[in-house]
Amino acid sequence: MKIATYNVNGVNGRLNVLLRWLAEAKPDVVCLQELKAPQEKFPIEAINAAGYNAIWHGQKQWNGVAILSKYDIEEVGRGLPGDPDDVQSRYIEAMVNNILVCCLYLPNGNPAPGPKLEYKLKWFARLTARAAQLLEFNIPVVMVGDYNVMPTELDVYKPQRWVNDALFRPEVREAFHNLVAQGWTDAIRKLYPTETIYTFWDYFRNAYGRNAGLRIDHFLLSPKLASRLTAAGVDREVRGWEKTSDHAPVWIEVGE
Fold first, then answer.
1. Catalytic annotation present for 217
2. Are 197 and 188 spatial neighbours (Cβ–Cβ below 8 Å)?
3. 41 — phi, psi (to 5°)?
4. Which of 101, 115, 155, 249 fits 6 for a cystine, CB–CB 3.0-4.6 Å?
5. Where is this site: Interaction with DNA substrate (predicted)?
6. What is the CATH number of the domain that holds 169?
């Protein structure tokens, strides 16, 4: 079973890129972030025609998450628990082929310090609380998406340039490490512990051409799923396609 994540950076504007990648990569399940589309504007007809069911949590300008699947999807919940006043579309959960799939788009947090960083850390705390609950279920769980965190210096080109950025500040990296320490497995690092692997390249300064990237899209696997991990990778070439997202799709494969 192949599970992927892709910050599509506008699902309608980059629909052709998404459909081309789906046809070529043939993932079974896909978590999308940054739909940038209200609920009624999600391109469900095109997604269905490509062979996928879908659930999504849209938002007019930014944010927005979706889960696409060749299997049936049973929605578990949308919106991260812990703050009923938070209306940003950043989180959705569903059961897919006996795996609980949690698709997330963690806040960026910039400029930092400031209220956006505070919101990011509070959101992180809510995610950590929910993650602890998920582990108690003792079932296969994947928490996947754009975390907007580079966990270590290996995950960022020229880390000294990022020390004050909300994606790399010590308190943000600490929040990520505390989350993983609950008992989650970082799938990419499990299989590639020392390799330089990026999932995002900025549009500016020829970042993709220079491979000046970041690893900010992550798969965290519960013990019941981590034991089934067989492969993982980044479809880096998609970042080089015309009118593409600044992220590349990332994927894992798990045994049945």
1. no
2. yes
3. -100, 5
4. 249
5. 247
6. 3.60.10.10
What is the 8-class DSSP label of residue 102? E
Query: Whole-angstrom Cα distance, residue 249 to residue 238?
Result: 7
H helix runs in 55-184, sequence order? 115-136, 170-180
Q: What pTM, to 2 d.p., does this model score? A: 0.98
Q: What is the pLDDT of residues 93-107, one digit of tens each?
A: 999 999 999 999 999
Domain extent, residue 236, equals 2-254
Q: Which two tokens stand for residue 134?
A: 């998920």
Catalytic residue, chosen from 6, 105, 147, 208, is 105
Total of domains in the chain: 1
Cβ neighbours of residue 137 closer than 8 Å, sequence gap 6 or more: 100
Rounded Cα distance between 43 and 36, Å, is 12
Answer yes or no: 57 catalytic: no
The neighbouring-strand residues paired with 55 are 67
